[in-house]
Each structure stands twice: as structure tokens, then as C-alpha cells.
Amino acid sequence: MDLFGNATDWAKNFEPILTKYKGTKHPLEYHNLYQLMVMVVLSAQDSDANINKIAPVLFQAYPNMESLAVSNAEALFPYISKVRNFGTKANWLLEIAQTIQKDENIPLTMEGLVALKGIGRKSANVILREAKIPAEGIIADLHVIRVAPRIGLIPETKDGIKAEKQLMQVLPKEIWGEIGMAISFLGREICRPQPKCLECPINSICEYYKKIKG
Fold it and tell me: Is the pLDDT of residue 171 over 80?
């Protein structure tokens, strides 16, 4: 079912973007699971580009969970001071590191991840997707929250949890793992705030495009 109560084969409809973006690595430039977790926490309300910029020096100083676990906020601040809400995020990261202690203890379940400070469902979905773990939800980042209502998948909302819940009701489980990131990449590249509709590989199923084409 879609937003309008019609039976829709979304797996088939989204095939062009699922194929186009299949397995594409997240824009955060991480090299292992520890780095991904740290960068996901830092990227909340900030841009991936900004986090990518500060990451190399940060990970030189803190190469793993053990080195982070024995640090403190004052020592961490200089490395992340250009990140939005860096004070709060420093405390989150230290608490995560002290809880987990070692890289190999990073939980790879939704329940285990959201139990950690600074990690919500969106972040957990990103970590699980990048670790190639079967999806327990759908990534609903800012791009997905903008694009999914445009397509006609869900009603407009600014609430990521609500958007994810609605997407999970509409989309078949077999595409959960990739569809969030596929819609996100579509939003980054084509379905921008000013969308490039003519370039869109799924414009034929998009409610917004149908309206403007009129």
C-alpha cells in the first residue's frame, strides 16, 4: 500500500535506484567499524563532509575503542571542536568507549546499538547496513525525510522515527537494508531541495513529478 491506499509493488518500482546505489559505501569516510561508530555519533546535526575533514587527525590520536576509553573530555575537545555540539558528543563517545572497551565488543543489533549514548535508530540502521547485517529498520536521514513524501511514500514529517515507522509499514522487508540509503543518495544527488526531476530514474512513479508535469 502507498500513502493513498493503493497496492504498489515498491520493490519493483524502486529497482532503478536499488540497482544504481546497491552496496554504495556511506559518504562517511571510515576504515573500520570503530571509526564508523564514532563518525556516526559526531555527524548528528552536522555534515558528513565536516566529519570526514576532522576524522584523520582524530583517529591518529584515538585509533581504537581502548584508547578512547582511557581519555577524557578535555583531551578529546581539540580534535572535535569544529563539530556541532562537540561537548555533548565528547561525553557520549567517552561513555560508549567505557561501556564497550574494545572494538570487537561493538554490538551489531538494533537493541544493542540504541542502548548506547548518542546512537538512535537512524545511526544504528547506518551501522548495521555498513556492517552488512540484515536490516531491522530503514535508514531515515534528512534526505529520506525530504524525498520519501515527495515520491508519495509517506506523509510529510520532520520526525525521523515517525518517517522510519511509516516506511517500514509501506515497504517490503526484503528491501529495507538498501532502500533507505538508495533514497538518501537520490536525495543527495538528484532529488535536492531544488530537484532535478528530468534526471531522476524513478520520476515515472513520483507523485511530485506527476504534479509538476501536470
Answer: yes
Please name the fold of domain 10-23+138-213: Endonuclease Iii, domain 2 (1.10.1670)
Q: What is the CA radius of gyration of the chain?
A: 18
- Decide if pLDDT at 85 tops 90: yes
Q: Tell me the average pLDDT of the chain.
A: 95
DSSP class of 134: P
Cα–Cα distances in Å, from 191 out to 17, 20, 134, 148, 211? 12, 15, 27, 10, 15
Dist. CA 109–CA 127, nearest whole Å: 9
What is the rounded average pLDDT of the residues 44-58?
A: 97
For residue 95, CA distances in Å to 15, 42, 100, 207, 208 come to 41, 14, 9, 44, 44
For the question of whether the overall pTM of this predicted structure is more than 0.90, the answer is yes
Q: Where are the domains of the chain?
A: 10-23+138-213, 33-130
Task: Domain 33-130: give its CATH superfamily.
Answer: Hypothetical protein; domain 2 (1.10.340.30)
- Where does the pLDDT of residue 4 fall: very low under 50, low under 70, confident under 90, or very high at 90 and above? very low
| DSSP category for residue 141 | -
User: 175 with 11: CB under 8 angstroms?
Assistant: yes
* Cα 185 from Cα 201, distance rounded (Å): 12
- Which grid cell sits at 17? 535506484
